[in-house]
Design brief:
By secondary structure, this protein is α/β, with parallel strands linked by helices. The chain folds into 2 domains: 240 residues, Alkaline Phosphatase, subunit A, CATH 3.40.720; 170 residues, no CATH class. Helices cover 34% and strands 21% of the residues. The chain has 15 helices and 16 strands. It has an 8-stranded mixed beta sheet with strand order 12-11-13-1-14-15-2-16, sandwiched between helices. Strands 3, 4, 5, 6, 7 and 10 form a 6-stranded antiparallel beta sheet that branches. The protein has a two-stranded antiparallel ribbon with strand order 8-9. Strand 11, helix 10 and strand 12 form a beta-alpha-beta unit. Helix 5 crosses helix 10 and helix 11 runs parallel beside helix 13. The relative contact order is 0.25. The mean pLDDT is 96.
Length: 422
């Protein structure tokens, strides 16, 4: 038996707010999966937690992020090809953003969501290798996809600590898990030390210094002058979150579940998680506007991996961004494109005796423009399993399925594998 584990990033909405994107979308393939499946709901981490994708993905792959996690920054770093000097470097996930440089008020946390990866690389080169002038310190900056980047704050001779809060006010750091704030003051935050240690105080000071120096450098960068002429928002600041000073030391996923896993992932954090867990990672190009081509490439990578491994984890970003933008029509359309160009073909082309598990890493309701703590739908299809009779892949309908409510994401895979092995 083979398994395809398909995660649709942020696909769920909040049913109490009205019709959901899954209810509005025309998605015959996903609905067919639901009709042939056992269904349920799942809290990706636990009730009341609105997680970022990093901790949520760790959880739904079977690892309790409260016990086994060291932050998103290191995973983004390894996904971008960087290494860390433990004790002397701290990695952060970063966003290029648009601010009012006089007041530090945030105008757009993602600078209009139209910063190209090439523009981001040019901006990152202007910041990479920055000397911070105290504590023998420096910054490394690597752009990844679009407005996203990785920042490493380091010192050649002074120990540093990852016990510092985010400068991105949209997320609160709770231990090593970042949680989306339902509301926040839209100003660049100072890097608050979370411990009164010399290492944490030193790191917070360096982060604030990096923030100010980067604003001064980015203000008149040619990329931003060009964007201003084109009527686009400048990428004139960089927001940091999810500090971590080392990679998690985790049991390999093959040892945990007795299966060889592969991964098809688009973003550095998912790539980093897959590498840390010992998965075989399929290389696919970053997402583009040509979704038919994007999903064809991801399907081809899925099918090739299935020839070599037992289970393939596939993470598709599509619905999350329009959820953040509050764009209902675009979120519906993103689901329809995944259904047409990935799921429908997968059902036709995946090998016999292959199970299909479909869910989300979190909800990103278009009504809230942020991740929320709502449960997400889960469907598990295999010819040996008795279907529940659910008629469509939606939040409301999956709630009536025999899988019930999975209260913690890390309980899902053990439950699924027990059903498939029984």
């Amino acid at each position: 038996m083979k398994l395809v584990y398909l995660v649709l990033d942020g696909v769920a909405d909040k049913p109490e707010d009205g019709p959901t994107s899954l209810e509005a979308a025309r998605k015959p393939a996903l609905d067919e999966v639901a009709r042939r499946a056992k269904c349920g709901l799942m809290y990706p981490i636990e009730e009341g937690v609105a997680p970022e994708s990093d901790a949520a993905v760790m959880s739904i792959l079977g690892y309790n992020p409260h016990e086994e996690y060291t932050g998103r920054g290191p995973l983004e770093a390894v996904g971008a090809g960087l290494t860390l000097r433990e004790g002397f470097e701290v990695a952060f996930r970063a966003n290029f953003a648009t601010i009012d440089p006089d007041t530090r008020r945030i105008i757009d946390r993602r600078c209009g969501r139209n910063l190209s990866s090439q523009e981001a690389r040019e901006l990152a080169r202007a910041l990479d290798g920055m000397a911070l002038n105290v504590y023998d310190a420096y910054a490394r900056v690597v752009a990844t996809v679009g407005h996203r980047a990785v920042v490493v704050i380091g010192s050649r001779s002074f120990p540093l600590s990852d016990a510092v809060d985010n400068t991105d006010p949209a997320y609160e750091k709770r231990g090593y898990v970042s949680v989306a704030r339902p509301s926040f003051e839209p100003y660049v935050a100072r890097a608050r030390p979370l411990e009164r240690t010399p290492e944490a105080l030193r790191t917070a000071e360096l982060v604030d210094m990096f923030t100010e120096l980067s604003i001064n450098i980015l203000k008149n960068h040619p990329v931003n002058l060009r964007r201003a002429k084109e009527g686009k928002l400048p990428a004139n600041a960089i927001l940091l979150r999810d500090a971590g000073g080392r990679l998690p030391r985790l049991q390999a996923i093959q040892s945990r579940f007795g299966l060889r896993f592969g991964a098809v992932a688009e973003m550095p954090v998912e790539i980093g998680i897959a590498r840390v867990l010992g998965m075989e990672v399929a290389s696919v190009p970053p997402p583009t506007e040509d979704k038919a081509s994007d999903y064809a490439a991801r399907l081809e990578a899925t099918l090739k991996l299935l020839e070599r491994v037992d289970a393939v984890y596939v993470h598709l970003k599509g619905p999350d961004e329009p959820g953040h933008d509050g764009d209902f029509k675009a979120k519906v359309r993103s689901i329809e494109l995944i259904d047409e160009h990935y799921v429908a073909r997968l059902l036709r082309e995946m090998p016999e005796d292959t199970a299909l598990l479909v869910t989300a890493d979190h909800a990103t309701p278009y009504t809230r423009k942020a991740h929320t703590g709502d449960p997400v739908p889960v469907v598990l299809m295999h010819e040996k399993l008795q279907p529940d009779g659910v008629k469509a892949f939606t939040e409301r309908l999956c709630a009536s399925g025999s899988l019930g409510l999975v209260e913690h994401g890390w309980e899902l895979l053990p439950k699924v594998l027990a059903l498939l092995r029984s």
